[in-house]
């Protein structure tokens, strides 16, 4: 008899396997990152339905296996998926969060409670649409790196602790550095950018929301560089993240008519949310950021 | 032998163990059967290509559907794969033409909009013949996100953009439907003519 266990989990990845199955990568509350087979999930009659799609927060029962576990039962706790997929900027930000969580939980089955809570909170915040998706992503990236033991400093010197703010910023040294610790070639970001990063780290949303677009761009560049400095493999979804004010990368040819009355079938998120609200969560919702 | 196992292992849904099993099966088969398989494979790469207009698999430069004058050229159905064209054709419900993207936007797997046939889609719309686009990407989150991206891109062009309703599976109980499916079913609800 294989061992059965039950846990809360976030679906990080869902890959096709054979005709109708999937391998799902889950970040669980108590068992760390696990990979499991979901049998028959791609058949339209599957009892798992969309519960095993990326971004979903679920209550799952698994059979333990040698390398892969097997999904036995799934209930939804937080159906963040559709609200996220209904907005492209939110989708790309959320995907980068999932991939980062996967990278930062290197060893399978090694408990990573803080990473789980952080990701659940981040996805919930994204689905609530309270802040610009790029800001939520950067807040998540800074905090998940901090939880992983690479907390950056945006005020005091990361090396000697001398009280800041300082002008120089060094990825290798872990953030802001004082004039005497400053290595050659350190970056000199705008003071407002460092204040924004600090606000994202501590959850000072009024300041972060009020920041200028160019400071956000500089901040997200620093965060991405800091992330890549610490994780071995490239987080590839980062390059697809749409930032504030970005437009689709495809150019529309000049001869395409653009003045015809527009009739677009909108995804009615409000209706979906009403339908979702009718399904009471079985467990406490995660804390938003 | 190892080369064969490695090559087979690259096929979708074939793990190392299955690859080994298939390789040994080939080794023990009648050489005539194996040559027939080789001939079929060669024919596929030599003769089957992709329609220059819609991206569907085709023996000719223009596929059967694109070259059929009886098809409605004002409606375009956007799908992820050629096999989706086959599935929709079987329903006999749709008389327009198709556009095959070649997958869905999946940043975590390294696939962005530029890796799909999105530019080709936009170029196709330049003639102004197409007035309605049906987004029939897979009813999963990657398919949803791809539809979201395309709707936003196509909206300023004044096209009627619709998404295939994904309702509740016929034969199931409502209480077992998951939240996303139920949500989409609400969205796709229709007026009852009584
Ligand atoms: Zn110092
Ligand atoms: Zn064609």
Overview features:
heterodimer; A: 289 residues; alpha+beta; OB fold (Dihydrolipoamide Acetyltransferase, E2P); de novo design (two linked rop proteins); 2 domains; 5-stranded mixed β-barrel; two-stranded antiparallel ribbon; 8 strands; 35% helix; elongated; B: 194 residues; alpha/beta; Helicase, Ruva Protein, domain 3; Dna Topoisomerase Vi A Subunit, Chain: A, domain 2; 3 domains; 4-stranded parallel beta sheet; two-stranded antiparallel sheet; 41% helix; binds zinc ion; Rcmb_RecR (chain B); DNA repair (chain B); DNA damage (chain B)
Low-confidence stretches of chain A: 247-269, 271-284
Named CATH architecture of the largest domain in chain A:
Up-down Bundle
> How many structural domains are formed by the residues of chain B?
3
Helix and strand pattern of chain B: HHHEEEHEHEHEH
- Report Rg of chain B: 21 Å
**What's the CATH class of the largest domain in chain A, please?**
Mainly Alpha
Q: Which CATH architecture of the largest domain in chain B is right? A: 3-Layer(aba) Sandwich
Strand content of chain B: 5-15%
Ligands and ions found: zinc ion
Structural class estimated from helices and strands of chain B: alpha/beta
Oligomer: heterodimer
Query: Residue ranges of chain B: pLDDT <50 for 5 or more in a row?
Result: none
| Major sheet details of chain B | 4 strands, parallel
Organism (chain B): Kineosporia mesophila
Protein name (chain B): Recombination protein RecR
Function (chain B): May play a role in DNA repair. It seems to be involved in an RecBC-independent recombinational process of DNA repair. It may act with RecF and RecO.
Keywords (chain B): DNA damage, DNA recombination, DNA repair, Metal-binding, Zinc, Zinc-finger
